[in-house]
Amino acid sequence: RNYVFVDTIPDGAVVLDCRESHHFGVWHYPGAERWNIDELGRRYRELEKTRTYVLYCTYGTQTAYLAEFMQRHGYEAYSFQGGARGLMRYARERGQAPSTGSLPTAR
User: Fold this and answer.
1) Is 54 exposed, middle or buried (0-12, 13-18, 19+ CB in 10 A)?
2) Cβ neighbours of residue 69 under 8 Å, at least 6 residues apart?
3) Half-sphere exposure at residue 40, Cβ-oriented, CA atoms within 13 angstroms
4) Environment class of 76 (CB within 10 Å of its CB; exposed 0-12, middle 13-18, buried 19+)
5) Which of 3, 8, 14, 36 makes a 20 to 30 Å CA pair with 28?
6) Bridge partners (DSSP) listed for residue 77
7) pLDDT tens for residues 12-66?
8) Which helix (H) or strand (E) holds 64?
């Protein structure tokens, strides 16, 4: 397993959506919690260290840095490979997302 990226959601993992709120409103992974990425970087200590976290952003790059940072502080945290689009594809393949709809283009 890659130490930062995952391409599946482990059983029991907490999924954290680190995109802007309007993107979250258009689509988010079922059960995902929305966190502003900067706020999560400041408040990650509020999360339970006993849980596994999968973070995603638009492309998966910002959350890769944050997941690595959290790992250095004792958390089991990963970034979903391919960001929101990769996660949407993963969810659709498992019947967890509508087969139609698209993500807004990043500005």
Assistant:
1) buried
2) 41, 44
3) 28
4) middle
5) 3
6) 53
7) 999 999 999 999 999 999 999 999 999 999 999 999 999 999 999 999 999 999 9
8) helix 61-72
Residues 78, 6 contacting (CB under 8 angstroms): yes
CA distance 13 to 32: 10
pTM of the predicted structure, to 2 decimals: 0.88
Query: What is the C-alpha separation between 105 and 51, in angstroms, rounded?
Result: 32
Name the residue among 80, 76, 81, 12 with its Cα closest to residue 44.
76
Residues that are catalytic: 57
- Which of 7-16, 52-61, 76-85, 96-105 shows the lowest mean pLDDT across its residues? 96-105
Among residues 2, 16, 11, which one has the least CA distance to residue 94? 11
